[in-house]
Amino acid sequence: MSDAATHTSHAQQARRLLLRHVLKALPDVVKDIATLLDKLPEPGASSDKVQLADNLRRSWLTLALPWQRAAGQRLLEQAPSSTSGTPLGSELRLLEEEDMEIQILAGRLAQTLAAPAQDEFNDLRLRLQHLEQTHELAHNDTVQPAHITQAMLGAWSDVGLTRDDWLHCQPVVERRLAQVFNEACHLANAWLLQQGVLPHIDLRALVRRGRDGAPLPAHGAAAATGPAPTHPPPGAPAAGMSPVAAKLQDMTQRMRQLLADHIPAAARWMGAGTPTPGVAGGPGAGAPGGGGSAPSHKARADATTLMVAMPHPPTPGALRAADAGAIAPEAYQAGVAELRQQTRALKQAASSQQDKAVIEVVALIFDSILAEERLPPSIRVWFARLQMPVLRVALVDADFLGSTDHPARLLLDRMGACVMGFDASVSLEPLEAEMRRIVQVVEQYPETGRKVFEIVHKEFEAFLSQHLLERGETQKLANLAEQVELKETLTVKFTIELRKLLGQAPVAEPVRDFLFHVWTEVLAVATVRHGAQHAVSTGFRAVAGELLWMASAKPTRAERAKVIGRLPGLMARLREGMTLLGLTAALQDQHIKHVSDALVEAFMARTQPLSDQWLQDMTQRLGSLDAYLADTEVEQIKLDQYSIEMITGVDASDIVVVPDTEQKVSSALRAWAKGLERGAWFELSHNGFASLVQLSWRSPHKQLFLFAGPERRSFLLQQGRVASYLEAGLLKPCEAETLTLRATRDALNKLDANPERLLA
């Protein structure tokens, strides 16, 4: 066979593998639906709902197998090629309203399938494009999520099931098909890899296009099928980066390349990468770092002139009505329409191609944000009011489109994460009030540019740290968890400092071991419970100095007499400290015996005693030990239900403690866990039960994470366990992508399809 025939054969075989895996899953989908229908209706439902549930259950008994067969037949139908010569007029027909609604449902289902499988599907798409030497897969290719979902929904209609029937069954079908499609893409990719097809995929192939839209030669077959490079290619995700951050980095790289392909001046400007400090675009703006070319300076000057023409206040009157309370849907739509008119007027007034492109990109990003159905209507108006302030910043600050950590982008993402995926029982009023305040601040100081977004982003984070702890027992649980981390941190720091203080001093090994492994923990617990300067804490630190003095040689009769007189009091204080730790009497006796044996040896020793001056300095230093603690980060924390109650003295029955295991966790996974943002919603599966939870608190050192659920059930996980749960899919973000990431991708897809609109 020729190379072309082999490539075609491989592509078709990969498609068959994918479809075969989806076909195998159809019986499971049928079972899932039957299980769901058996649970309907919910207790307390009205008689109408009971009747509807019974009708649907009976219908499914007779229509399940016909639907499965019809869906299989539709899946195996070869999708028509997008390059076929079918006349355009022959494809046009009037659709019934029900058909249109079914197509809309199929489109939404396709988005649900595509989200978790994005990485696998992108790899498969690039491999098929490489084999078939095409720029893009046809929109109706058999591997496209839309082809699969249209088969499912089309078969649903074919057998006589209705749209309302589908809405009842949609959740379980979505969940099953999303998993199956991801697995199918993975299987197809694995088979193609076995055939040697694109063992390494350069991420730049996703975005780099020539002037005519064709892939550049550097990313063609020869470059792509070669051995993997030793170093990651430009634009590849950095080690230790979370999947969301990696996707966002790739998206900004795509944005840079898109503008570079069509507007060279914008490429030079974005290549500078350093925002101008102070007033954005103001007269004192310096040259961008690393740039300094004449076109870059001109672009900033043009943008400053353009901003003078921007309306002030920038918010349309219809949207400003939200300051007085909720606005009617028609008023919101009128405000959004006015925003679009303002955008068109600004684009016509722009004198440079760069400004036109930035205006268009920002408008497309906000169009996507405002069309996001998961944003509550009462919240959407505040995102709309941020469009013009964000545009003002984007015109003079290349970082908004070209970096992943611009404060305006971070603010939009944080606001979106807190309201998308939230539980309906949680009140949005405090969040909405804070968002209203933030938007009003940004609108009042438009000339401050990037700086005002930095300020309000920090203020929003500070607000979240308080707001997320106000629900139910969350504050109490966070306080308990913080005390646990503080105790472990202090234990490590006390141990480090004691090791430094003792150094090479001739201290008996049992005494040294007791101080390092038992007494440092006593000091930490006492400090957490009572405070560093409390009499109990300072008394226990003095006991450490007393023990060191008694454990040194006592050559004179007077010193031995002092030891005999003070020994009972010392033993009582040692037991008091170990009781604070909750040690059993048997374990206390074991420690006391080891210490007593060491003291007897010191009592009988005839060696040189410790210097009085050294002992005096040591005792004084131990008395103020907390003042000398090093700033040390603790990576391992001993965490369980018992340790929480022992450290804090408080009942912790309201919290599910999930401690670390012995499993090794990579630094990349730990970095992913550390990057989780407070306020984001997750689905947490623990011991077979799934709960919707919100990350309400994380400790200052990001070692402990508290996930609060609406049903008053909270989970405390250590960093390593969070990382393991993320890797295993037991902790899944309700929103796999940030708001601006999804919006930027939507904008790029539209611009890839129609790049002329950048300058139109």
UniProtKB/TrEMBL annotation:
Residues 216-242, 269-298 are annotated as: Disordered. InterPro entries: DUF1631. It comes from the Bacteria. Residues 279-293 have a biased composition (Gly residues). It holds the Pfam family DUF1631. Transmembrane segments: none annotated. This is DUF1631 family protein. It comes from Hydrogenophaga atypica.
